Each structure stands twice: as structure tokens, then as C-alpha cells.
Amino acid sequence: MMEALLRALRPLSQPPTAPGWNHDVMTELIGHTECRPAAVLIGLRDERVVFTLRTDHLSSHAGQVAFPGGSVDASDANALTTALRESEEEIGLDRSLVTPLGYLDCFETISGFCITPVVAQIATEATFHPAPDEVAEVFEVPLTFLLEPENLKRYVMDYRGHRREMVEFQYGGHRIWGATAAIVHNLLQKMEHP
């Protein structure tokens, strides 16, 4: 499984650039908007994917499942730096216990971000300490669960008069949907068809 994962990734020496792989769809939905750069960490610990549940009081995406991550700061050298910094801030992840593996292609969101997903191995002994003002919970989902076709749910959503095909996963009472599910689905597709 790890071999398929590694084959699916862009090497660390070749980070992706905007626009996102879904740029045409986003342009149709929100027009030609300048996207703000962001990065997320798709962390794998013992072949389990690490997710966060955002707190209910946040101004955006409250109560949603997400990857640790956020906007690129001016002081960040690159998307990898952003993903590691945000993971430290949000879930207390010690970056010395993270081994970056590669990137997925950029993904654009309805909220106007262009996200660079960074895929990394997290050491078994790593511990998580969620920032209580941002993260309600950290949980892990086996990669094998996400790879099972019957665990992928498809539906159509109406957004500003446009029909959007969406995907989601349900695991342990958590609904993984939106940008997070789309990024997971992109990874799974690349693992099956590199």
C-alpha cells in the first residue's frame, strides 16, 4: 500500500503550483478570483490518516472535519513549512516526528483558497495536543477503509444554481466531506491509477 501511495505523489523536489486541478469547475462556480495560498498536512501514522474536527465556534468551516493546515504566512519558505507550522499550532505535532513524502496537486476551494496538500509519514510515537480554540478532536481513519469503494458516498449538491458532484466518507460518527473528502478522493484515485 505504501508503494502505491509513494507512486501517487509528486516528489518533494517538484512542488505543485496553482491553478488547482479543479480550477475550471471553481471558475464556473465562483468566477475568476485570486486564490489565497494555503497548505494542509495529510499525515499517515501506521497507515492511518490523521484528521481534525474543527471546533463549533470558528468563523469558517466550524464543526467540519479537516486536515491540519491553513494560510501560507509571509515567513513560510514553502507549502511544506506552512503545513508543518500549522500542524504544530493546531494539533501540537512535533515536526521532528514528521517525514514528508511528497505532494498532491493543488486544490481550489469555494472559500477562495488554493491548497497544496503535503503527504507525510508521522512517527508511531507522535502525540497530538489539539489547540482547544481551533480543534475539538484529532482522529485517525485506516487508509484501507478509505480505499474500499463501498465507503465512498457520492451525491449532487446545488451551489448558486450549479450542480456539483460531491464525495464523502462516514467513519466513527464523523462525516468527511467538502474539500477534505475531495483531496482524499484525489489521492485514492492516484494510488489506483498513478
UniProtKB/TrEMBL annotation:
Molecular function as annotated in GO: coenzyme A diphosphatase activity; metal ion binding
Residue ranges the record marks as coiled coil: none
UniProt keywords, alphabetically: Hydrolase, Magnesium, Manganese, Metal-binding
CDD domains: NUDIX_CoAse_Nudt7
InterPro entries: CoAse, NUDIX_hydrolase-like_dom_sf, NUDIX_hydrolase_dom
Annotated Nudix hydrolase domain residues: 34-172
Cofactor: Mg(2+); Mn(2+)
PROSITE patterns on file: NUDIX
Protein name: CoA pyrophosphatase
The species this protein was found in: Dyella monticola
UniProt lineage: Bacteria, Pseudomonadati, Pseudomonadota, Gammaproteobacteria, Lysobacterales
